[in-house]
Give the backbone structure.
Amino acid sequence: MSAGASTVTIPPRFQRASRAPRRELTSTGRTVIRLITFAALGLYGILRWARLTASAPTGRLLALLGLAVVLVAAVTVLRRFGPVPAVLAAGLLCLLALPVAGLPWHEFVHVKIAVSARHIGDGLSGLPAAIVPYSGANHWVRTVITLGAAVLLLDAAVVLAFAPEAFGDLRRAGAALPLIALAGVPATLVRPELPYAQGLLLFVLLAAFLWAERLHRRTATAAIALALLAGVAGAIAAPRLDPHHALVNYRAWAGGLARHKVDAFVWNQTYGPLKWPRTGHEVLTVNADRGDYWKATNLDVFNGRAWVSGTFSGSNLPPPKPSALSIWAQTIKVRITGMRTNDVIASGFASQPLADPVPLPGTSDGTWVTDRALTPGASYVVTTYSPHPSAAQLEHAGNAYPRTVLDDDRAMRLPVAGVAPAADPLIVFPAFHAHGGEPTQISGDVLGRVTPAQDLARSPYAAVYALARRLAAGARTPYAVAIRIERYLLNHYAYNENPPARPYPLVSFLFQDKIGYCQQFSGTMALLLRMAGIPARVSAGFTTGVRSGRNGPFVVTDIDAHAWVETWFPGYGWVRFDPTPPLAPARGGRAALPIIKNLPGENLHAPSAPRRTLQATPTSVRRSQQSAGHGMSPWEIALAVLAVAAVAWLITGMRRGPASTDERVRELERAMARTGRPLSAGVTLSDLERRFRDAPAAAAYVRALRTARFKGGGAQTVPGARRAMRQQLREGLGLSGRLRALWALPPRPGRP
């Protein structure tokens, strides 16, 4: 453009001269970039941190990020007036983070320091047993987790705000470390989806935070492109370079110098405080096409106090239908790595394993034992059948139980007042479809002495039987009863690995203590199902574990030791239900906070607190596959990508110092072309000003450029003139007009 009344074309000689100066960012420009990149990196960090809780306090985390950004901006401004105002403002904002993170406002307003400290201490004491993502009802554990994000965000903000600018890269690196921890700590506890892609995103945000404010405009685009190229190359190469095992296996070296740890498990239910090993020690690996619960044994007998291994008669059950076998059968390879067991670990119903020593049939069909213990290094191959029908399939499975065959699985010994334990009657409850039936007694001290119903009424389990009948009332199918019982336990009872020992543990669990772990939950559900006339038993073993790599084996640790319920359905056989709350270590997020995970635990649920219920498909593997992990939701990914795009756009578009008039004229010429309005030869600035005469502010923008070209100096536009010009550029461009206008004439510091 020409500056005069003839054309608006700038002479080439002047263009070369105008591009020669290489201006640095103004102080305002550096501050804006610093705040934008800090906020973007912090946003990614809190999105990752939110994965530490099942119901993320997103609003609180965003508010904490806002406080951190305000702290950096406020201190940057107030430091001009001396250190005292800056320190006071920073201190106030840091204190304000306490109620924002979840401490009660009245404690903050009335300065109840001791009360707040006690609450924080309560939350910290609960962290050792807090399984992430945390889904418990302990408010103070949640608050402390949120406060962790506050500490990291404000720590980064204070370093960035107060460290002398002379520190340069060291200052930004010091501020970046807490933000890296904000994103990195959750990734070590809850495996993210697409870890290499998320690593690329973190790399780009970190690079922008560290170096963006130092870039010249001409080199910014190239630098960002180079960083993106390097990050993408790393993200592509990393999965291929990752061997999924340590390059230097220091554990193997250490193991050669020390005795190997070997776990052992007693699967009969004992209740009371949990005595299984709980150190995270690896016990076995399973090569399988799909994850499952890895069964050691079935506990078929309720002896009046606990579920134990055994059988009353050993009747064979009808096989499942062929279509079910074809869908849910698989061959697995099990390797014992850190335990000693005579039970052959498999899943569902197992055919005879190929192992040495040769396995023998267990007390329950489909389980196997060895006469010589399997120890680390032992391995075997076994074909298993473990059905996972849908809710609709189970609803239509019916209740056509074979006559007498399933009596054992509806029977239990019940202690009766005045009767010696050895003579406890064995009572069979009527099948679910036999409405109006009464329990029958098939053994006891004196048959016919009293009716089974009278024995039951004199038993400690009378209230349990009444509850079972109440939960089954009106249900049309066994599946509906199972779901009711499962939800009842999930909604009214708390997970705790240290319940008190009681003479009748399951009765006390239901009506007195209301706390327990998998043994209480599974034992109680099986008890209620049998009393409702539905064949049920307890199974014990391990949950799925963590898959190593995309197609690697499932790695199972002692934390995965678990007990669950199996219910028999016609056509499918024994189907798994799991009434234990999802926050249990064997079911939920795997890790306790690692630094203090071996300290004593605490009650993760208040007994009266509402409980999260599962979907009505108990046979699916309700625990998320650990190979998939907990990733970012689509809106979080979109938000993070937009943050990266915003950072890149603001950095590349930021002006270095006051733009010259010639540069701004060329920018306007490019903007017209980018929005589909290229200027023809001979168009003057005066012509362009007349074109926008119906938009006074846009015309004023052009007039300021024209006046500056004739009189020299910078173009002083009226407030809002650049925005008005942008509005004119997007006219008639449809839905994409706003984006095209922003690209053509982006906001500048001090000029919106």
Notes: The chain has a mean pLDDT of 76. The longest strand covers residues 561-569.
